[in-house]
Amino acid sequence: MQNILSSITTDSEIRDILNDVLEGKTLNFKDYKKLLISDDIYAIGLVSNKLRQNLFDTTASFINNIILNYTNVCITYCKFCAFYRPPGHIESYTRSKEEILERISISKQMFGITQILFQGGHNPTLSIEYYEEIFKEIKKSFPLISIHGLSASEIDMISKVERSSTKEVLARLKMAGLDSLPGAGAEILVDEVKSKISPLKIKSNDWIRIMNEAHDLGISSSATMMYGSVENDDDVIQHFMKISELQNKTNGFIAFIPWGFEPNNTQMQLEGLTRYSSGGLKLLKMIAISRIIFNGSIPHIQSSWLTNGIGMAQLALLFGADDFGGTLIGEEVVSATGARSTELTSTKIIESIKQIGFKAAERDNFYNIIRFF
User: How far apart are the first and last CA of the chain?
Assistant: First the structure.
């Protein structure tokens, strides 16, 4: 397999590292750092694409889903977020059970959704009964639709409202119908970074602890990384290594999604902390390095079309991603930045996958293939 690098990385300082990857050897912090600072994105992508191909051949999956942003009321006031509104704001909202069920019903009829991505702000007025009632009604009315919902930081908020442990909250929500947790709230799992971009949100160790509790309860999850804000390369590597350490312990992460911060309309842009998004080349590097680091550990890497667009998501499939993500009908968080369209139809995703010579496959919440196109 080393021959795939011989013609393009003869003088590359990362050639030995990439050969080690192809031979299945374990990398260390210094190796990750060299990959992150390297400009040889093509060589890194060549190896990550080979790793993806070994696992999935030319199959690229996606899921028919909606994002249900049930409330935009939030008291953590993250500087990177353009979506939230403080309590009492004229633009604040919280969806009723009836509104949520109606939207799910329409989405199922129109798009054949199989997953609900249920996420919102940190609303201190919502008790756990709000979530339990909604989840139970969803499962009663739509038993085949999975609930992929509530970030670790939302779980923490509910526990504070209830004055109970996060593990108890997770157990009750699982009984009510919660199937899996998204990885939101991680951002960069380094508290020095969090103190600058989201000082009121849970700390890194709390995110890890809550995910550990979820995995112990049999609730699988995805893991995410929001890059391109104020972090440095060492922070990124620490994030990767913390995710890897927990995965080695619990094997509870089924997907990893690196996504680029979009500063438009955010307080971070206003304060001059981050003026521009990090761009397409950074996306491809992060996708490729994610595949290399999590090879044999976390099976699925998403292409992050939401924050980088369809064209970059297509390229991401050639740099190690195997999943296009979801249709994301009704997305409101990234769309609040005004950066781009934030929903796709399954037809558009299938076309995009086929355009680059891949086989399109619809999957379910747990990455089981439902059908090929």
Answer: 31
